[in-house]
Records
---
Amino acid sequence: MKKTLASGIELDITMAPFTEGYRLFQSVLRELQNIPIKVGLRGASFSSLAEMDVNEEILDTIKNVVAVLLSSPEVEGALIPCLQRVTYGGKKLGTGTDVFESEQAREDYVVVMKEVLVYNLTPFFKGLTSGLSSLLPNLSTGDQK
């Protein structure tokens, strides 16, 4: 996947092999399991998430998720192998540290990590939400029993 960042730098991400992507998925799930997710879903459907107003509870949840994922040594350790297949401005990221030495590049660091994380996790989360929808029909349809 190629994407031009707001800084004008081109980011090129290649999907990590299954074992590396799954290790990343597992590490993210381990980190997220202790964060209370409060987005006001009670009685709502997954499809209504896009229509929800952002409130303090949602912002607090997002803040907690971002802080945990960015500060987790386990997530970082699982993300590093995924970075081996990424180029930033034509430079291979490798472990990701040397490419971000300049002040300008540091401005893109969090964006790049998010893009690599999302790109490699999206297939796993699609399967997870599909599985949850069949297990918890109230969440997928908004119907109450």
---
Amino acid sequence: MQDLVGARVVAEMTRGEQDRIVERIKARFVNAKVVDRRVRPSHGYRAVHIIVKVQGRPVEIQVRTRLQDLWAQIVERLADEWGRGIRYGEPPLEPTRRLGQMTRQGFVDRVMELAEEVDVVERVAQLRAEYDRLSEALQARGQALSNPEEEEMAAVTARFEERERRIRALLEGLHNATASRRLGA
């Protein structure tokens, strides 16, 4: 453990917005160190950590999107119930113990897969935001993309928005289930 004090910033945001928040925080501290767990995830965990010194002591500031935070809270609750090692890629306690149709290990594996799905959804959302900025810049110059290009982008966006809704609903359901400890001890 390197820090004894921490703070967390969580918001509905794109990765570009997350980067801007990180830069604003970093600009307020001399020698701030950034650890980008989106680039190098730790057993599914993604966020951006900024380690700063306050009165000579290390302080960690985590910046998470809402989906990153939901996922991390689920894993923390599972680790509290089924063993802290889950956070580090270790199997849960009693991995073959059943939880409905699935074993604990199967459940943990599915949660880890969801981390990858969250990553894809967030990357696509960031690309869509960049596309929208480009489209607005073209329109400001009196140019525009063709109708077929716009229609194709709208179709792709609709598919990924639906995927994001499903993933968000699944994460929120798992978050609520782990909060109410319906996962068994």
